[in-house]
Amino acid sequence: MSINYRIISIGTLAAHPLWEERTPVRGGHATTTLITTDSANILVDPSLPPKVLAARLDERSNVKPDQITHVFLTSVDQLHGRGLPAFENAKWLAHEPDLEAANTQLDEQILQTEKGDDRELLAVLETQQEIFSRCQPAADSIVRGVDLFPLPGVTEGTCGLLLALPGSTVLICGDAIATSEHLEKGKVLPNCHNIQQAQASFTEAIEIADVFILGRDNIIVNPLRKPFGM
Description:
Layout: E1 3-9, E2 32-37, E3 41-44, H1 50-60, E4 70-73, E5 91-94, H2 96-115, H3 119-134, E6 136-137, E7 141-143, E8 146-150, E9 159-165, E10 168-174, H4 180-185, H5 195-208, E11 211-214, E12 219-221
Parallel strand pairs: 3-4, 4-5, 5-6, 10-11
Antiparallel strand pairs: 1-2, 2-3, 7-8, 8-9, 9-10, 11-12
């Protein structure tokens, strides 16, 4: 089976801790990746707003929104799934532990908000609940050669995708490895759900892949390996 991948949008952190930024200085969004195979068009982390992402998809590929067959969230949250409504024809997928944790957290937020008087926030949370309810637990393989690779720690069930290509292994990391600076310094994001678990996932990613697609950055070759078997 032929497997190809392309960055649709390079992500960024609202505040980059390794650039000495302590408060948001830009709009954060996750890196969005398109995986194409003989049978599927898989979009990973549709983080930009729907109209913006549809335009970016058109700029970066010949795949239209209604041709996307699967959307996968490396983390189940509003930021990673902001563009989901642009892909109504696709299956919306996530790692089951992360999906369960996100839904539990959202239910608790809605319950607490209902006790107050913030109708605007409640409407936002209920919209997010409706979107999450459409997400399904992903199987271990989305299609042949595109496999889930759990990387828990940043969130309870953060999960990457491992692409088995001739001569190299590519890992779409999500926020498990956020930027090139985090990769270089061996750091994880400071606001992790579980720092120790996130650091273990970081180490496992380094050991498995030849090429990384970083959660808030570009494609980078694993600095500990020679690229493409060279």
